[in-house]
Design a protein that fits this description.
Layout: E1 12-16, H1 20-26, H2 31-52, E2 56-63, H3 71-94, E3 97-102, H4 110-123, E4 129-137, H5 139-155, H6 166-170, E5 183-186, E6 205-208, H7 218-229, H8 239-250
Parallel strand pairs: 1-2, 1-5, 2-4, 3-4, 5-6
Helix pairs in contact: 1-2, 2-3, 3-4
Bound molecules: farnesyl diphosphate.
């Protein structure tokens, strides 16, 4: 565990990309226009992470609750995802990005699901950046599916019920193989986590900015990292304990 974030870049950054709709409204354009502009900001975020050596980037692209949006907006988002898969995957692959879609993919049209699975298979050997795109994802769903796996494992006699602990459940969540979440950013001015990565947020640092997602550029992300670098991460310990353990580490 790291006591201080001083001078460090997060190993794992997660972003709730909020504000596309308001950005479009300000320009008297449909919400889908904002989502398309949001895709450009995704490129900026990927380049930023590659440049800073951030190992994992997890983006909330479509929550399990987003199906409740107007059908035309859901359709526009699905089309955007299909086009993004067609247009972006090769470039991402060339940049060494491993793409992973997390969430319940069963709900998507077969062609879109196939595209997601192909992109994952195509980039699985890449190591420069893990780009996790959360689609039809919810933090509660993630925990519930790990709990279901536990029930099945116990029923099959593979593990004793008493052995199902935090570590076991943590190993059966979508991002089990990735570093702990260090920094969570939400753009667009709202201060909530909206059922994203609930388990992983336990000890993440939270950063909120009013900037609407399509306006997010590398400077906005650099501000978030500078703020993160100034945080003292205590993980339940006292400040004095953290200082002492840092002194011991550097002695
Ligand atoms: C939230 O803004 C944004 C979304 C639900 C969609 C996010 C999708 C993208 C940025 C598109 C590209 C993504 C990938 C990975 C290709 P909102 O619509 O809730 O905005 P509002 O709060 O202003 O209404």
């Amino acid at each position: 565990m790291t006591g201080s974030a001083a001078g460090r870049v997060p190993r794992h950054l997660a972003i709730v990309m909020d504000g596309n709709g308001r950005w479009a409204k300000q320009r008297r354009r449909p919400r889908s226009f904002g989502h398309r502009a949001g895709q450009k900001a995704v490129r900026q975020a990927v380049e930023f992470c590659l440049g800073k050596g951030i190992g994992s980037l997890t983006l909330f692209a479509f929550s399990s609750e987003n199906w409740q949006r107007p059908p035309a907006e859901v359709r526009a988002l699905m089309e955007l995802f299909v086009r993004a898969l067609e247009r972006e995957v090769d470039q991402l692959h060339q940049n060494g990005v491993r793409i992973r879609f997390i969430g319940n993919l069963d709900a998507f049209e077969p062609a879109l699901r196939e595209g997601m699975l192909k992109a994952m298979a195509h980039t699985r050997g890449n190591t420069a950046l893990n780009m996790n795109v959360a689609v039809n994802y919810g933090g509660r769903w993630d925990i519930a599916q790990a709990a279901q796996m536990a029930v099945h494992a116990v029923a099959r006699g593979e593990i004793a019920a008493e052995a199902i602990d935090e570590a076991w459940l943590g190993q059966h969540l979508c991002l089990a193989d990735q570093p702990p979440l260090d920094l969570f950013i939400r753009t667009g001015g709202e201060h909530r986590v909206s059922n994203f990565l609930l388990w992983q947020l336990a000890y993440a640092e939270l950063y909120f900015t009013d900037t609407l997602w399509p306006d997010v550029d590398q400077a906005v992300l650099a501000d978030a990292l500078a703020d993160y670098a100034g945080r003292e991460r205590r993980f339940g310990r006292t400040g004095a304990q953290v200082t002492r353990s840092l002194k011991d580490t550097h002695a």
